Amino acid sequence: AFSQDFKHFVIPENFKPAQVLSFIKLSDNHLIKEKKLHYSIAEKEDDHFEIDSLTGDIFLSNELDYETASHFLLQVTIKDYENTPPQNTTVFLSIDVEDQNDHSPHFQDDFIVIGIEENVPIGTPVYTFNAKDGDGSFLNSKIKYSMEMNSLGENPFLIHPSYGTLITAFPLDREITASLLLTVSSIDQAINLTDRKLDSLTAKIVILDVNDNSPVFTSSPLSYVMENVEVGFLVHHIVAKDPDEGKNGQVTYHILSGNENKTFVLDKVTGLLSTSLPLDRETQERYSLTIMALDDGIPALSATQILTVVVLDVNDERPIFLKQFYETAVRENQDPGEFVVMVEAVDRDSGLNSLLQYEILPGSGYGNFRMNSDTGKIVTTISLDRETEEAFSIKGNNMKYLSRPVNGRGELLYITVLDENDNNPLFAKNRYEISMRENLQEGSAVMELFASDEDDGLNGEVMYSVIDDTFGAFAIDSVTGSVVTTQVLDRETKSVYTFRVVASDCSTHLPRSTTNKVHLLVLAENSMNSVLGEVMVWIQDVNDNVPKFEQSYYKASVWEGQIPKTDIIQVFATDLDSGLNGETEYSIVSGNENGAFLIDSSRGILATNTILDYENTSSYRFVETAASHYLVLLACDHGTPSLNSTATVLINVQDANDNPPLFNNPQYHIHVRESIAVGSRITEVSANDCDVGANAEITYTISSGNDKGHFRLDGKTGSVDLIKALDYEDTVKFTLIIQAT
């Protein structure tokens, strides 16, 4: 007989050898212990398991390895020798090896170097890490990857936890980070966390250079050089830095523009800029060179810089006047300090080298002028006179303002003094006298007058004219000064002519003139031979004119009370005579017996001599009659004999309020009955004032004594009236104080 059974076992991979795995039990109850059974593993090809032939215990004979064999199928045969023939029973044992995490993940290398270009985009795969795990089951051999950066800073990479692919997470820049070290770890995923195993390696990520940086200039864009340096002089060291690597960072230098005349030469490798031609600041004081720095990358990158080369001045230029010859004019008679001209020189040098000082070189007339040493302004030091010197030639000089002056070239300045009409024409003679016959033809030249004027141009050109009446007998040529007759002369009609001739210049602005007298004597002539003689007849003045007042009657007024010497009126008298015959003297000859007035004998000013009182004398009259009761104002000349005339002056003395009112009686005594009727007139007071007009108008008032109001006073008439009944028993006497104003 034959029977079969099937059993399944799971044993861990780390099950120790010699340990009993299980024992075989028959599935039916007909097998008992007492039975003689024999156990064996049929067709044994694997030596991992053994069975106790007597007991049926199965035990492990060799270590298990899940990764080598994870499943065993054993056929156990059980022979029962109690039966005849022996009965066999077959039991199939299915044994699954349960994997244990006994293998660690493993990288092939402990250290690797990975290169990646810096310009790769984000998300670019860089490297795939592959760790192996010898475990056979899924979780024990499933690997997750992680990484850490060995330095501070942001990690630009990410790693896929399952696939181990390293990718870029941020842009790379070799110039910032050229390389970095990453520790990449792999760990299996055993269920029991404590059983998990890991391995790690160090990866050096080298960022490969890409030509992504242009050169950057680090040298100054400004350079200075003296203009007198020799050819080949080092002007500037141009430096540009390129952070790229290798050829990408190798820089060469080139001049793109600004050096068209080849003034400079640039070493393209060292960046040394030198002169190749002589420099001249006055020709060109600065150069703007466009410099290019070019790297050797592919494609090549470049940068440009404007290098300004400033040529510094050397004192190698002479000052030069803006004009070779200055010509100007200044008016005569101006005050010292009058502006003449501003001369100006330039020096092509700069700074202190171009500062100039001016001076006037010694020479004729140079002291008449002063030059501002800083500005070149020339002014006069005196008032010039054209008639003394009409022109000046002056040498000027400019000098550099340095410790060792460099003389400039002297330049000529010609100054013309302009004429002012400051001279009168002058006659050749102070007086012209001539005698002539009365029978000269009309138009005959009598004499030649001549006047000269030192001024220039129209200011010195003289014209002649007659300003007095010649009675139609003479005229003068305005240009030549020739005096000619304009009619036939007759001595019996007029024997002497005297007239004035004016010589005037022709200035258009304030012309000047001189007057001279001409005396002409006309001689008698008969038909017989005669001896001619010249007789000068001078007509002398005779006192034949009486002083004459402008008015025959004057009227004036003066306030009373004025202080002595108060002017009242001024009178005038004229006398047509000349000299002493025409001098007039004033006096009061009558009407001033009390001496109230006085008169200025030369000026004719009539004034008070005392304090006048209107109330004593109201008027004074100075009359032209000889009445003793009148005052006479006399004007007489100093001729011999003296002539005179009189005039009347009526002076009214005007009233001033200088007199107080005076009562006719200082006291009034009035007796009345107590029964007098109200309204009755008591009395009338009266006062007089010596003044007149408004000054004599009097107003009456009761100043005291009328406290009870019994009386009324008329302010104009002085009438005192009763307005309240009297009572003897109450008041016996009233004393009224009345004021007149």
UniProtKB/TrEMBL annotation:
GO annotation, cellular component aspect: cell-cell junction; plasma membrane
CDD domains linked: Cadherin_repeat
InterPro entries: Cadherin-domain_protein, Cadherin-like_dom, Cadherin-like_sf, Cadherin_CS
Example GO BP: homophilic cell adhesion via plasma membrane adhesion molecules
Chain ranges of the Cadherin domain: 3-107, 116-217, 225-321, 322-427, 428-549, 550-663, 664-741
A Pfam entry, by short name: Cadherin
SMART domains documented for this protein: CA
Gene3D superfamilies in alphabetical order: Cadherins (2.60.40.60)
Record has Cell inner membrane as a keyword: no
Highest taxon above the source species: Eukaryota
Keyword Transport: no
Subcellular location(s) per record: Membrane
UniProt keyword list: Calcium, Cell adhesion, Disulfide bond, EGF-like domain, Glycoprotein, Membrane, Repeat, Signal, Transmembrane, Transmembrane helix
Record GO terms (molecular function): calcium ion binding
Stated name of the protein: PCD23 protein
Organism: Crypturellus soui
Record lineage: Eukaryota, Metazoa, Chordata, Craniata, Vertebrata
Gene: Dchs2
